[in-house]
Write a structure and sequence with these properties.
The protein has helices at residues 10-13, 49-60, 73-83, 99-106, 118-131; strands at residues 3-7, 24-25, 89-92, 110-115, 135-138, 146-148. A hairpin with a 7-residue loop joins strand 5 (135-138) and strand 6. The chain has 5 helices and 6 strands.
Length: 152
């Protein structure tokens, strides 16, 4: 199975995914006003809660069969078993530390994470690679595309 981490704003990076390439969505979206990554226009830093909710709906509307979860691994397991076909691909559009991908990979699913923060993408990559396998990390700039493994 494979794990990819796409670094960037979910509203941009969702456009990089092929149509019908995702079977299930499991995520815990960013909380409003809690964490500033220093990126203009980031989700969670809208002036009002109403704008935040509208932006979250817009960002995930392309996936009508989306399943969402907070992140005890056992809950991710249940969501995968209930909502993703065997060998399917799960998307976590707010990847964080990679719990969804770590659980998915261990259960035989492919996973795609989208993460705004380079630091959190690196945490997720290391966490998954330490347990399972190398992880693809894709930045928006093609010259930076590459396979990073646990040896780095």
């Amino acid at each position: 199975m494979s794990v990819r981490i796409l670094i960037g704003d979910v509203r941009d990076r969702l456009r990089d995914l092929d149509a019908d390439s995702i079977d299930c969505v499991i995520t815990s979206p960013p909380y409003w006003g809690l964490r500033d990554y220093g990126v203009d226009g980031q989700l969670g830093m809208e002036p009002t809660l109403g704008e935040h909710i509208a932006n979250l709906v817009d960002a995930t509307a392309a996936f009508s069969e989306a399943h969402s979860a907070t992140f005890p691994p056992a809950l991710v397991e249940r969501c995968l078993m209930a909502g993703c076909p065997p060998g399917g691909t799960v998307l976590d559009p707010f990847g964080g530390s990679g719990t969804t991908a770590m659980v998915a990979d261990g259960m035989g699913y492919d996973a795609v994470l989208i993460e705004l923060s380079e630091a959190y993408a690196e945490i997720a990559r290391k966490r998954i690679a330490d347990v399972f396998r190398p992880v693809w990390v894709e930045r928006k700039e093609p010259k930076q595309l590459g396979l990073l493994d646990a040896a780095e």
